[in-house]
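Because discrete structure vocabularies remain unfamiliar, we first show an illustrative case, written as a sequence plus integers encoding its fold.
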Amino acid sequence: ANTIFLPFAANPHFFKPVKNKRIPGVTFIGTPYGTRMNKISFLSKSNISVNIYSSNEAIKNNPIRNAFQNVESSIKSAFELSKFSIGRKALYAALKKSIIKTEPQNFDNVKFFPSVTFEDMSSIYSNSDLCLGISELWNTYVLKKPVHKLHLRTFEIPMSGGVQICSYTEELASYFENRKEILMYSCNEEFKDLALFYLNKNN
């Protein structure tokens, strides 16, 4: 069959600027696990406020952990992932994370809120000081070269008038102009510095 490739986008009828009450700090809408938890913890350790909109049990019951609670399902999933290169990298990252010593995660500066409806996303993105975009897949942040995957929120945030901060990738740079349409960083120090600078209302 003929294959038609369409680039990522967001629906302008749903995602558009909606200015209400300001939401201070960095906001993330989605289930926090793997790389996401790591980045949220890093911001918290840097004394940066983070708002997470997710289910109340998201921290305890994430999809990765749940998968490994079912041995049969886990073996099948691992077999399927082993069939392609990115899947093998994801498996290796999960194994590496399980054996390396990682720093304790910090959520002292994190506020948890209930999941939001599809219709409310634009308002939250529009009114947040910064919106966190995360492209690193699962636990691949422990690798020297993480696997990156763009999500629809990557395009929904700017369409809603939100300011997005995300890791630099060539693919992302092909869609957005850095420091004009999006904030991209290449290391943790730049991540922290960018967040602090743009959260400072005097700048």
About this structure: Strands lie at 23-29, 50-53, 110-113, 128-132, 164-167, 183-185. Residues 107 and 130 are 18 Å apart (CA to CA). The longest strand covers residues 23-29. The chain is about 35% helix and 15% strand.
